[in-house]
Amino acid sequence: MDATDREILDALQENARISYHDLGRRVGRSANAVADRVRKMRRTGLIRGFTTLVDRSAVTDSSLGILIDARLRPETTAERFEQVVVRLPGVTEVIHVTGDSDYLVRARVPDTATLDALIRALKDSAGVAQTSTRLALRVVLA
Q1: Is beta strand 103-109 parallel, antiparallel or unpaired with respect to 91-96?
Q2: Which pTM does this prediction carry?
Q3: 113 alpha-carbon distance from chain centroid
Q4: For residues 46 and 48, what is the distance between their CA atoms, to the nearest angstrom?
Q5: C-alpha triplet 40, 46, 49: angle, nearest 5°
Q6: Pairing status of strand 128-136 against strand 91-96
Q7: Cα-to-chain-centroid distance, residue 47
Q8: Cα separations (Å) of 113 from 31, 130, 137, 141?
Q9: Residue 90 belongs to what H/E stretch?
Q10: What is the 3-state secondary structure (H, E, C) of 23-54?
């Protein structure tokens, strides 16, 4: 990775929808040259994907944002837990953490009955021994 690649990454992090023409002009290269570089960075895994940031308050979504601290059973491997939890409905993010818990599981559920089902699935299928659940009241930065 050279200085031009770093400039391309900086520009894409500011605006992932920038055209190759504008990106090339910004870094002093042709549109084809920056397109080739971006394709190479995607192929090698340096760029893993592009994402859309959504202002949740602007979306008419009545779902509940949930944060679940999960402690695994001693016999549960991290690999097994991760394989199961990423497939559970409502799970949006799984973070391996330090501290009293092993993982922080973020989820969006429509109601408390669905939350109950998610917690039961974590314990029954994913090898979780203990959970501590919090409700997200407001997201300041996402």
Answers
A1: antiparallel
A2: 0.61
A3: 24
A4: 6
A5: 90
A6: unpaired
A7: 14
A8: 52, 19, 18, 28
A9: none
A10: HHHHHCCCHHHHHHHHHHHHHCCCCCCCCCCC
Per-residue pLDDT of the chain (142 residues; tens, 9 = 90+): 899 999 999 999 989 999 999 999 999 999 999 999 999 999 999 999 888 776 656 655 678 999 999 999 999 999 999 999 999 999 999 999 999 999 999 999 999 999 999 999 999 999 999 999 999 988 887 6
Q: At what angle do helices 20-27 and 3-14 cross, to 10 degrees?
A: 130
Burial of 93 from C-beta contacts in 10 A (0-12 / 13-18 / 19+)? exposed
Phi-psi region of 28 (alpha: psi -120 to 50; beta: other; left: phi over 0): left
Q: Which residues pair with 104 in a beta bridge?
A: 69, 95
Match 């993010």 to its residue by tokens.
93
Cβ atoms of 129 and 121 within 8 Å: the answer is: no
Alpha-carbon span 35 to 22, nearest angstrom: 11
Token look-up 């002093």 returns: 28
